[in-house]
Amino acid sequence: MSAPLLAIRDLTVSFATRRGGHAFQAVSGVDLTVQSGEVHGVVGESGSGKSVTMLAVMQLLSQSATIAGSIMLDGQELTALSDRQMRKIRGARIGYIFQDPMTALNPLLTVGEQIAEAVRIHRGDVGHKHAVARAIDLLRLVAIPNPEKRANQYPHEFSGGMRQRAVIAMAMANEPDLLIADEPTTALDVTIQAQIMELLDQLRREKNIGIVLVTHDLGVVAGVAKSLSIMYAGRVVERGLVDDVFAAPHHPYTKGLLESLPQMDERVERLSAIAGAPPPISARPSGCPFHPRCPYVIERCRSERPVLRPVGPIDVACHRAEIVAADKGTLQDA
Ligand code: SF4
User: Fold this and answer.
1) Which parts of the chain sit beneath pLDDT 50?
2) Are 2 and 24 contacting, i.e. CB atoms less than 8 angstroms apart?
């Protein structure tokens, strides 16, 4: 079998405090694999380490960050590359879609100019005229109506959904192998959200690209991702095929995320089934980091950190995974 498109192994990212004191681990021992032509969801609350992991892949973390472990793209070790070598990978082999399209778009340039520029950064041999023609093709690819006219408009003339489509067009400018979409639909309403997810899935099918879909919303990965990793306090706590995890979550955190999803027959969103808030990076609890919020907690959980282990078709980091999976009641009943 060929090498996975993206293989992250035992990734740890630490940030030094300002005065060079104790370093805090934002991400610890993360393993993650993405194949070409598949969508892998990375799900967790804010501060879970999901975006830090993806910024480590892009080598876009601040100077205070230290990376340990391995990040391989199609068999090439990214952590060993120089800034210059990495600049050639970013935007060419890996496209990144940020949460807020306005941070990715320059309000002073037309959308067409910006996409053409993204084409020319990595392909100096392409002339201006051809780059503009390619920009129009890319706008067509992401289903922007009347792309010739739209290419001459500024970002403020686009709706929120159209802006996100333009950002996706820019990320696709050089036909990357891997697309990282970091909360790509958070700022959009539900209908537009569904359209953007459909667009990403269409690009995956047509171009055979691998997509990492980073989100706090488990509902977003349903229907589009094949596999997923759930992150909590800088670690992967559960991973497997989406169908297996949705059918029988083995970690109480995943169970809570699933129970918090609005149901088709409910008019209002459910309140979070998980009490409390994730711990700050500077004060992560001993043992299992989820123990202060976990209704299944036992004494062992407070002192012994659970490691990721296979339980049936799922990998899970919980001392009581078998009991959690077998429990058909809700988290509040536990
Ligand atoms: Fe809960 Fe213990 Fe499992 Fe952590 S290890 S999730 S505290 S049952």
Assistant:
1) 267-269
2) no
| Nearest-angstrom CA–CA distance, 89 and 93 | 5
CA distance 275 to 271: 10
DSSP state at residue 235: E
* CA 306 to ligand 1: nearest atom: 5
Contact 209, 176 (CB under 8 A): yes
Q: Which amino acid residue places its CA nearest to atom 7 of ligand 1?
A: 291
Contact 42, 53 (CB under 8 A): yes
Contact 173, 209 (CB under 8 A): no
Which H or E element spans position 72? strand 65-73
* Location of structure tokens 């799900």: 43
Q: In the structure, which protein residues have their CB atom closer than 6 angstroms to any atom of ligand 1?
A: 251-252, 288, 290-291, 294, 296-297, 301, 306, 318-320
272-305: pLDDT as tens digits: 678 888 888 888 899 999 999 999 999 999 999 9
How many CA atoms within 13 Å lie on the side-chain side of 119? Answer: 23
pTM, entire model: 0.91
Ligand 1 pocket test, pick from 297, 304, 315 with the greatest ligand atom count within 8 Å of Cβ, gives 297
Amino acid at 105: L
Q: Per-residue pLDDT tens for 148-180?
A: 999 999 999 999 889 989 999 999 888 899 999
- Judged on CB neighbours under 10 Å (0-12, 13-18, 19+), 125 is exposed
Using CA atoms, how far apart are residues 48 and 279, in angstroms rounded to an integer?
9
Counting atoms of ligand 1 from 1, which one is nearest the CA of 291?
7
Tokens of 91: 């935007």
Query: Identity (one letter) of the amino acid at 246?
Result: F
Going by C-beta distance under 8 Å and a sequence separation of 6 or more, which residues neighbour residue 74?
Answer: 3, 5, 93, 177
The residues spanned by each domain of the chain are: 103-175, 250-326
- The minimum-distance atom of ligand 1 relative to the CA of 300 is 2
